[in-house]
Amino acid sequence: MNRLNQLFQTKKENLLSIYFTAGYPSLNTTVDIAEALEKAGADFLEVGFPYSDPVADGPTIQDSSQQALENGMTLNVLFEELKELRKLVTIPIILMGYCNPMVQYGVERFCKTAAEVGVDGVIVPDLPMYEYENLYKDTFAKYGLSNIFLVTPQTSEERIRKIDGLSNSFIYLLSSSSITGGSLNVSDAVEGYYQRVKTMELNNPLIIGFGISDNKTFSKACEYANGAIVGSAFVKYLGSRADYLEGIGEFIQGIKG
Amino acid sequence: MKYGVNEQGYYGDFGGAYIPEMLYPNVEELRQQYLNIINDADFKAEFNQLLKDYVGRPSPLYHAKRYSEKYGCNIFLKREDLNHTGSHKINNAIGQILLAERLGKKRIIAETGAGQHGVATATVCALKGIECVVYMGEIDIQRQAPNVARMKMLGATVVPATSGSKTLKDATNEAMRDWIANPVDTHYIIGSVVGPYPYPEMVAQFQSIISQETKKQLLAHTGKELPEYVMACVGGGSNAMGMFYHFLDDEGVKLIAVEAAGKGVDSGHSAATTALGKEGVLHGSRTILMQTEDGQVVEPYSISAGLDYPGIGPQHAHLHKINRAKYVSITDEESLQAGLLLSQTEGIIPAIESAHALAYLEKMQFQKDDNVVICLSGRGDKDLDTYIKYFGY
């Protein structure tokens, strides 16, 4: 059982996860940002490993990825940082990134190194279920890493059940079918979809992401799920001021209310 | 077919559908429906009718006599340059617009590099009265102003891709994002044999008309259906796949795919994917792509915008890996010289893309009875500025 599973056993509501891109706004900031986020009350973290062509992301995260790559961020650099980070940070860490950098690193080597430096789960938006199940599942399991799947308003009930069966930490519920960084317009349709998934009584906890940027959207998401993820809004915040470490507590308070 | 796709969308080790969950319903809808639709008699009738009356097919297979003499063999040019809109791209655009119509889609999006696929897509959207949005890299918009104007005149909206390197791969990313945000009413017309399954297979099938016609035409010319060599240029690889398609199982036919070496394979300014690339995942499929050691996509370079792509279609990656086709490369300069030679021996100014395939003739040895088919994928009008600058006319 990894840190994620332990977290979900002890805390079942209002979980807050924060995403940030490793290497942004500058190199060697991952540890400081993660430490500040834990201190401010984030329940778990998603650390993005940057990719040149992030199709599931909007301009905010793409720009931060571009900047991170220019700053020299690579998986090797990130794993070194995470080694340090684990000495200081105890909350669960999820790596988020795209297939190609992982494939180049070597999937087995990626999982092994990630587990060694204290990573608990991985989100790879462009890794399809078929490929995961047939090629990578055993490797992920061997190193105790959770693979986290996305579910959208268009995902069929049958497919959600299948995803539930393949998941072993939580399911990432997209607030809308869009790229990251949009604004969440909590319409009746979105609420209907949250409700529909909620009533399926899945085995895995649900965490809502995409478009969560303030207390209002966070609270709404928490009515239907165990918690929510803030990504683009936090990345935008990091780029907005030079002394970003100072204001992280305030930022988190603003989300939690 | 021995070299065809399996049920999971793989050609050997390559292919699949590496897409975010947000695209799953769109791609799944296509996967489930496209075969039924394109095998339907009504679809086939309309497709063939449009190819004949609107595109001008069959495109001629021209025995280039003076050109043949120079190389000491029989060279046949498959004249895709004579198609409406000036290249093979229209074959796929027609197929996909008819498919989109039958899927009930109200809006079309496409990516384009040089603008050829964008123009083909804008054309078929005008033909059908369907809204058309074309994503094009901001830098390509500047480089290819006449094609941007053509698309606008045809009623399309051209949206600049301002992210990343602002070229074809970024236009592709932007189109995918649009499709994520508009999953229900929009069909994405991908212009090459790339992308998640079923795109590579679907586009190959629409382009396979090229080799289907060639076999019959070659029989009429030579009394034999099969040539010794079949050659085509490869960016993503749609004209090459169309040209190879019906020859794949004829193992005696040597298939040659010509990539763009740019300023030289090792110059750091190249698009020779099989020479420089490694296996990985790009734009939804497992294939060969140019990338850094860390798996970041490398920006390619070629004088020919249509070959300026960091990957190749997954079926090409497979044919390369198992050596069914030979992948070679030609530099900017060699291609321009080949374009000049064809112009002056046959009176045909080829697209610089197609000139890459022609240029490889210089590096081959032929028997005098060899029959060689080359896909002349597009005409050179769009490249006149580049030719003029290079030759100083």
UniProtKB/TrEMBL annotation, chain A:
Active-site residues from the entry: 46, 57
Alphabetized UniProt keyword annotations: Amino-acid biosynthesis, Aromatic amino acid biosynthesis, Lyase, Tryptophan biosynthesis
Record's keyword annotation contains Transmembrane: no
One Pfam family this sequence matches: Trp_syntA
InterPro entries: Aldolase_TIM, RibuloseP-bd_barrel, Trp_synthase_alpha_AS, Trp_synthase_suA
Reaction(s) this enzyme catalyzes, per UniProt: (1S,2R)-1-C-(indol-3-yl)glycerol 3-phosphate + L-serine = D-glyceraldehyde 3-phosphate + L-tryptophan + H2O
Homology family: Belongs to the TrpA family.
UniProt function note: The alpha subunit is responsible for the aldol cleavage of indoleglycerol phosphate to indole and glyceraldehyde 3-phosphate.
Name of protein: Tryptophan synthase alpha chain
Automatic annotation (TrEMBL), chain B:
Assigned protein family: Belongs to the TrpB family.
Entry's EC annotation: 4.2.1.20
Organism annotation: Mucilaginibacter myungsuensis
Entry protein name: Tryptophan synthase beta chain
Domain of life, per lineage: Bacteria
GO molecular-function terms, A-Z: tryptophan synthase activity
Catalytic reaction(s) noted: (1S,2R)-1-C-(indol-3-yl)glycerol 3-phosphate + L-serine = D-glyceraldehyde 3-phosphate + L-tryptophan + H2O
Keywords: Amino-acid biosynthesis, Aromatic amino acid biosynthesis, Lyase, Pyridoxal phosphate, Tryptophan biosynthesis
